[in-house]
Amino acid sequence: MEDRPPRIREEDLRALRIDREQEGTARTRPRMWIWGGVGLIIALGLSGFAFLRWRAGREVEEVVVAEAVRRDDRGERAVLTAGGYVIARHQVEVGSKITGRVIALFVREGDFVREGQVIAQLEDSEIRAELQRAEATLAAARARLAELEAGSRPQEIERAQAEVARTEAELRNAELNWRRLQQLAERGVVERQALDDARARYEMARAAHRAAQESYELVRIGPRPEHVALARAEVQQAEAAVRLARAQLEHTLIRAPISGTVLDRYVDVGEMVTIGFTSDRGAKQALVSLADLRDLQVELDVSEADIARVELGQSAQIVPDAYPQRRYRGVVEYIAPIADRQKATIRVKVKVLDPDEYLRPDMSAKVTFYEKGTDGRTTRPVVLVPQSALFIRDGRTLIFVVRDGRAVLQSVTAGREEGGYREILNGLQGGERVIARGWEKLNEGDRVNVRP
Which of 63, 272, 305, 386 could in theory staple to 436 by disulfide, Cβ–Cβ 3.0 to 4.6 A? Predict the structure, then answer.
């Protein structure tokens, strides 16, 4: 028998046949997983990028920061805080004692001047001419007085004596002639008319002789005391006129009445100043305004209900609104003896004990009054931040601190408020930059742009 190969059944061939659809499906599945992973990575990248853009869009453009200030507190308790304005104890407006035109100005606003320093000059040509005339009148009056006080000169006395001798000789001659004609008239030799003429000449000679004697006595004795007194009065009058002219000449130089700083200048060269009525377009009364900025006060109106907390000599702390980080020591120096009925307040003035160049007149400031007699208490460190920087969330007192350009939440323990600042008893060391404004929409870690 021949060996025949085994018969292959048709069902066995179908089992060995490769299914093309299953082969395509098997090849496609790994590719789908690969592309799915790539898509997932791209989606995650886009999501991260979108998140970063979203975080960048939430960045606060501007926040206002302030430094947490650390200082030593003596434990004094504030009893009252009130607002007022800085004033200079000595502030004057420098004017002129005479009317004139300004020909020179030697100061500008902000210059410091000392007492007696010349700050301006007025035109003085007319006053100088008046002074020269007064000096000439004085010289004439003094010469007249000297002449009267010196008395008569020897030559004048000799001339008066010669006049007396001459009139005496004429008197004797007239008397002899009259006697002779009288005897002749008794004999009937001469007429009565000739006798009368001779007698008249005798009387005239006697009168002339008497006048010559009186003139001689006046020359010998000298001027009358009344004439000398009159001459002295004329000299005094001329001296007063000279002093007046010199004083007016001195008044053309405007000098600083106190040492201080020029706050304002009201005139320019060429303008008129006067001592009378002024107008906006006419002559000015004041040239400059001066104030001693080394002696400052804070003037404030305290309510009648609070005035019992204020007393003379009481210590205080002054915080200007323009520089809230700066503090000045003060003491109550003045309490008005009368109240303002309209406002129901009493005026109080607090002397600034340590003024500097930051304080200026008319600045607004807060004054905190402390209990009197508490200066000897033990000091303790205190950190102060603006009141506006604090807020409460979930029952906690929080504050935002700027670190590396980001807002970081910090929990703090707050103490008393003082002049717009708040004590931080725990949570800050001092020197941190805290966000005083613009924190309302911030979250932990947000980037911030800092405005000083």
Answer: 386
Please state the pTM of the whole predicted model. Answer: 0.48
Alpha carbon distance 50, 52 (integer Å): 5
The confidence score (pLDDT) of residue 318 equals 93
Spell out the SS3 assignment of 306-371.
Answer: CHHHCCCCCEEEEEECCCCCCCEEEEEEEECCCCECCCCEEEEEEEECCCCCCCCCCCEEEEEEEC
CA distance 244 to 236: 12
> What was the pLDDT predicted at 377?
43
Pairing label, strands 60-67, 448-451: parallel
Angle at 247 between CA 245 and CA 250, to 5 degrees: 110
Q: Assess whether pLDDT exceeds 60 at residue 8.
A: no
Count of Cβ atoms closer than 10 Å to residue 440 Cβ: 9
pLDDT digits (tens, 9 = 90+) for 146-155: 877 776 666 7
Report pLDDT for 201.
Answer: 87
275 contacts 98 by C-beta, under 8 angstroms: yes
DSSP structure class, residue 447 = B
